[in-house]
Write a structure and sequence with these properties.
It holds the Pfam family p450. The protein has 497 residues and is α+β, with helices and mostly antiparallel strands. It is 51% helix and 8% strand.
Length: 497
């Protein structure tokens, strides 16, 4: 038998196996478009705007449907009711983390974001408690954000009102807050180690949100062997983790269990307390990944939201004017904003929520998985099946948010728009249920304190007429990024802080 015949037979067998496997697995799963052998539904999806494709499929197959990304099924939940039913009403069953092969290769199942089971619970509990109780007897996280806000003002002053792209400066501030929480100290914006860390974090987010990464995660075995940006991402992960591990080693040498300085110290103290437990999740490898997760999840997301916020405020000068009026009334010009101010600033609070709703930063959330076989809406979803939850379908639901594609702070004000802030169960910018983002509290704090400090000190001046400002995301695969733009920061409050 010649090699060509063997190859043809092998491919034929693989094709038949793929068809059999897909057909046998589809019987009790939710409905969905018919997949092609091996590649699944990939040709039926707009890889550059997956959320648009999900919306189209939901109109045909309903709020719960199945897609094949390669040979494995993925169940998609579209709309508030389906997402709530899964992540809140059946939170335990949907509490697994879905597979992202490239991230698994980088994280090895450690840390918070991409761990599972007991490890995930331990790391999540530690992180939540540490971030919540951080600063007992020391500087609180709020004080660290306020300190960084003052440094940000000084950097913006150096622009002297000249046109600038705010991307770099707005990325420095949240990254430095995370540095302060994890490493104890902030860095000068020109510090080379700080710049290297920021460069790699920024590069990884952009690579991770590219169509190439979506292809990698569907065909990891094939793509890994090829050259491409996934190699850069993995190297960046290694470099970031090596830098963090060096910091951990330095902390171990100077650790004072009675005087924790930062998150690393808190983890190392917990590690000492857990010495008698075997096995313990409190290892230096897990600490490295927890810190890496905080940087990855807390830096780029907050800086992107800040950058998008300024763009939307340039587009809506009447909104900016009302926020500045509230800042003047509640905070004034001669002290730093604090979190207590937010309860007295309902319009600003509504604007912050509307910014996060409108930009839809993580349109498809991070993938979940079911922890065991589950009957869900008369369908049987097997254990380990990946679950995609469309946050776009919740944040842009026209029943809850009239004209959802329009930026309108009134979405979070009471029906009479008399000025009272109105909460919404549909506000799921940070997911919901058991997988709600660990850093949600810090994100709200960072956005409020940094943005109000900027507006307290500067007038935002656009280089073009507000009606010509373009706000559509530059990318919409894993994360949404604002288009590149420039503005001028005109100092209005000398010496306020």
């Amino acid at each position: 038998m010649g090699p060509v015949v063997v190859l043809v037979l092998g491919l034929s067998c693989l094709l038949l196996f793929s068809i059999w496997r897909q057909n046998s697995g589809r019987r009790k799963l939710p409905p969905g478009p018919t997949p092609f052998p091996i590649i699944g539904n990939i040709l039926q999806i707009d890889i550059k705007d997956i959320t648009k494709s999900l919306t189209k499929f939901s109109k045909v197959y309903g709020p719960v449907f199945t897609l094949y990304l390669g040979m494995k099924p993925t169940v998609v939940l579209h709309g508030y009711e389906a997402v709530k039913e899964a992540l809140i009403d059946h939170g335990e069953e949907f509490s697994g983390r879905g597979r992202l092969p490239l991230t698994e290769k980088a994280n090895r199942g450690l840390g918070i974001v991409f761990s599972n089971g007991h490890r995930w619970r331990e790391m999540r509990r530690f992180s939540l408690m540490t971030l919540r109780n951080f600063g007992m007897g020391k500087r609180s996280i709020e004080e660290r954000v306020q300190e960084e806000a003052c440094c940000l003002v000084e950097e913006l002053r150096k622009t002297k009102g000249s046109p600038c792209d705010p991307t770099f400066i707005l990325a420095c501030a949240p990254c430095n807050v995370i540095c302060s929480i994890v490493f104890q100290n902030r860095f000068d914006y020109k510090d080379q180690n700080f710049l290297n860390l920021m460069k790699k974090l920024n590069e990884n987010v952009k690579i991770g949100s590219s169509p190439w990464m979506q292809i990698y995660n569907i065909f990891p075995g094939l793509i890994y062997c090829l050259p491409g940006s996934h190699k850069t991402l993995l190297k960046n992960f290694d470099d970031i983790n090596s830098y963090i591990l060096k910091k951990i080693n330095d902390h171990e040498e100077s650790l004072d269990v009675n005087n924790p300085r930062d998150l690393i110290d808190c983890f190392l103290i917990k590690k000492k307390q857990e010495n008698h437990k075997e096995p313990s999740e409190f290892t230096n490898e897990n600490l490295t990944m927890v810190a890496s997760d905080l940087f990855g999840a807390g830096t780029e997301t907050t800086s992107t939201t800040l950058r998008y916020s300024l763009l939307l405020l340039l587009k809506q000068p009447h909104v900016t004017a009302k926020v500045k009026e509230e800042i003047d009334l509640v905070i004034g010009r001669h002290r730093s904003p604090c979190m207590q101010d937010r309860s007295q600033m309902p319009y600003t609070d509504a604007v912050m929520h509307e910014i996060q709703r409108y930009i839809d930063l993580l349109p498809m959330n991070v993938p979940h998985a079911v922890t065991h076989d589950i009957k869900f809406r008369d369908y049987i979803i097997p254990k380990g099946t990946t679950i995609l939850t469309s946050l776009t379908s919740v944040l842009h639901d026209p029943k809850e948010f009239p004209n959802p594609d329009k930026f309108d702070p009134g979405h979070f004000l009471d029906e009479n728009k008399s000025g009272n802030f109105k909460k919404s169960d549909y506000f799921m910018s940070f997911s919901t249920g058991k997988w709600t983002c660990v850093g949600e509290g810090w994100a709200h704090m960072g956005l409020f304190l940094l943005l109000t400090t900027i507006l307290q000190n500067f007038k935002l001046k656009s280089l073009v007429d507000s009606k010509d400002i373009y706000t559509i995301p530059a990318a919409n695969v894993f994360a949404a990024f604002p288009p590149t733009y420039q503005l001028c920061f005109i100092l209005v409050c000398v010496g306020a802080l």
